[in-house]
Write the structure tokens for this entry.
Amino acid sequence: MPVLLASLSGGVAVSSPAPATAVKPVVARVLDLSTDLAPFHALCAARRGEGFGWMADRRAGRILRAPTLFEDAVKVLCTTNCSWSLTKAMVTRMIAAFDRGGAFPDAAFLASLPEGRLRDELKVGYRAPFLHAFAARVASGALDLSTWEDPSRSDTEVMELIRAEKGFGPYAAETLLRLLGHHGHLGLDSWSRKKVAELRFRGRPVKDARVVRLYQPFGRFAGLAFWLDVTRDWHDGREKLWP
């Protein structure tokens, strides 16, 4: 089976020759190719006067994802309550420990690591027991992540499934919902709260409910409009590094 290697800096490579039938589904997932964004772009065009038109013009909205949902979930867990630089360091140490030419570790490998090693060597901190339990449930089959990807499930249903896993609070769950194509929630954190305040409220901190009302007209795409809004400078090339 081919391994798609995707670095945090955006590089992608296939570890070994493989038939297109094996590679195409992985690439489609990473690049979010199956999502129909036409309804979202229509909403953006209709709100051009409020600064959302560029999203339609650029056909923006596809979310870069990992080759597997397990990798996405672990990386999101590593973003909780810490800086982006610390997240990258944790992920880099996981990949080094796995030692498979840059591939992200699978559930079986992370489940095999004692909590002490996760905490002290990979330095995942308080996440160690949550990461170990999550990996063990996925590796054993007790947790079938395909249930999170079931397109027939609503935002609320998927949210409940994610929140049932220890360590995945509101922010982590809403961020994973975004990666799963469920955009009914914003996934607010300290960085995005500050950014939306600068962009939309003249730098004044506002309550989350006020931010939610701002993007509410986008309906099921509210979270996508919010995310593109606060990351516009990434698209414009005005910010060289992610937060």
